[in-house]
């Protein structure tokens, strides 16, 4: 199992790495050394090239130029397998577990020396013994597609350790975890680096994680190395200045008094989740104009299904949804008439056509609307281009060109593009799910500013988020979802994190 | 032995016998398609492969005098077709469904062209094993004449199910079929895996074809296939990509196909042609009944262009 590779952390160094996609330079002559046994953080705004750098290190991309040194020796990273043989492993930003395979199957098949015939009984015994040495448990018999995001993330990390990798790259490992889960996972990872068992390179947007867990930090900006050093010797201000090119402005958010009238009401809403095993039941929820209603909950407790119900992706098996007093059937025409907009989670999958261009994706709300709101027959290329340029500019979307495929954008930039599209024009109601997932801090604060701004002008906002800090920061009222039901409600004035946490964990 | 009058009992008996006889090509083609689809690719060309397999199997059996060499030849021919399909699909921007349709027409056309000289000659049949020895009733004996390929198909279904669960090859195929990215991340080459899976699937379809020309109906003609290769695609979906279900689905389908002739044998002749549509109606009905607008299709390989 893990026996064949020598144990102990290793030093990995990337020298003069350059990566070009066409004429676009995503990585420009970056050199970075990660010492054996260190916990190294990689910072940078969205699209800075962090994922590109680590994918080059792992042999997933072939760098245009540059070299890799592992333990001081030249290493050819021709493909991920070569990297794996040297003990390098990576947890990607997008999950790479195989959805229909169980946890155990995923672990076993990722090994290099899978026997031709797998003796499951012996294999399970060995896996169980291995799991005993892990600080957290993961359900090994469930198909990955049924696991919650947190469980998948843990399984990804467990998988790397199971493979005996001694250099781990974690690409935003905590973006899908609750703060407590994140601390648990990172704490354990750090303990392993301290013990000299592994070296870790972690991409993150959270300074808290850098200062609490990392030893060293490197910062990328527009594909270039712009600074770094030992954590503790470099201040948060210095780090953020290096990332952004300037210190971020701390914006004052003011909550204006708003008129609150009911906009969206859910009554006795019932639905079945995609496995057909769990049900979602929401007795009564009302969203008012001029308020942000936060829905907190640990991932996998029905929030995703709620979002799918509201976007019309999931069929209701009972109950009623009303929008401005009228029954709402989640059609595009109704949403348009009532000025209802959405920002679903994983926008690339749920709100984009990945192979279409950025400009086309940005036009999804306007391409079929002619002057005066009548429906248009001919496509107006110039209006689409104008709309795209304006939104790219206003929301600072980093893209090689408006004609680039939206799938080629970095995770954070897809998020910005979709938010820009959904917030354009007049918006009376907005339903958002994890809007800041994977965004750098300046984008996070820009998006939160926009949400508050929209609220102040009377927009009703339903904010579904797994980030409790975000809920606490933005909401006027908070609901907690647990096991498909709303288990708790409180106005922000009386909300407290401990109590919310208990309800989220299902001990109300 | 003279036929004994067994009355209405003749109907289920004829259906059973028919199911066993008619289902064999379905078993092979659907198992082949199941393997290919599990790797994340659709091969709609199996109809062409089936017909070509029927032709080449018949021709080789005739030339060598051994039906088993015929089956082997059909398998090799089918594998070549599958590999060709897999190789073309490797290229960027090539759609497996379109290639499949082209391959289907190509396979049929080539088989008709090369098979002209073999329409007249008689090739040796594949042997069958009589499981009806315990009975004196000739109808029972006839129904329980089980061809060796049917038995091989049943064993193959079991082996394939075991392979998907407990062998490296099986897991590799499932990984590739589920997520191309995940496969790359563990260092697998999805193109190679799909190429081989399509090749193996083609070989099985070829064997299915050989059964048609070497056992039932047992001669080579241009109308030998009645769309078995295409129906197998629907069977695989209905069987939810599970080899053992493929076996049962093929049997059910074969049984439905035998309904028409069975009723005719007891003298029901009204709506006779309608009963020939039974298998298709059955498939359609079952597909509708077992699908759901709320649940994700269980067991569907995620990298498949059908489910993407
Ligand atoms: N396959 C690709 N083709 C073209 N351009 C790409 C490709 N992959 C990345 N890019 C571009 O390279 C730049 C860097 O992307 P990368 O994914 O490395 O950013 P990142 O630092 O990881 O950002 P985030 O924090 O949003 O994940 C982006 O502008 C992106 O559009
Ligand atoms: Mg990234």
TrEMBL record, chain A:
* Pfam families on file: ABC_tran
- Taxonomically, the superkingdom here is Bacteria
Q: Which UniProt keywords are present, listed alphabetically?
A: ATP-binding, Hydrolase, Nucleotide-binding
Enzyme Commission designation: 3.6.3.17
Q: Which InterPro entries match?
A: AAA+_ATPase, ABC_carbohydrate_import_ATPase, ABC_transporter-like_ATP-bd, ABC_transporter-like_CS, P-loop_NTPase
- What Gene Ontology molecular-function terms does this entry list? ATP binding; ATP hydrolysis activity
Q: Where is the ABC transporter domain?
A: 10-247, 264-508
Q: What class of enzyme is it?
A: hydrolase
Looking up PANTHER family in the UniProt record yields: CARBOHYDRATE TRANSPORT ATP-BINDING PROTEIN MG119-RELATED (PTHR43790), GUANOSINE IMPORT ATP-BINDING PROTEIN NUPO (PTHR43790:SF4)
What this protein is called in its record is Ribose import ATP-binding protein RbsA
Organism field: Roseisalinus antarcticus
TrEMBL record, chain B:
Residue ranges annotated as transmembrane are: 6-32, 44-62, 68-88, 97-115, 142-164, 192-214, 220-239, 246-266, 272-289
Chief place of localization: membrane
Q: Name one Pfam family in it.
A: BPD_transp_2
One annotated GO molecular function? transmembrane transporter activity
Entry keywords, A to Z: Cell membrane, Membrane, Transmembrane, Transmembrane helix
Compartments reported by the entry: Cell membrane
| CDD domains (alphabetical) | TM_PBP1_transp_TpRbsC_like
Q: Which InterPro entries match?
A: ABC_transp_permease
Source superkingdom: Bacteria
Which Gene Ontology cellular component terms are annotated?
plasma membrane
The membrane topology noted for this protein in its Swiss-Prot or TrEMBL record is:
Multi-pass membrane protein
Q: What is this protein called?
A: Branched-chain amino acid transport system / permease component
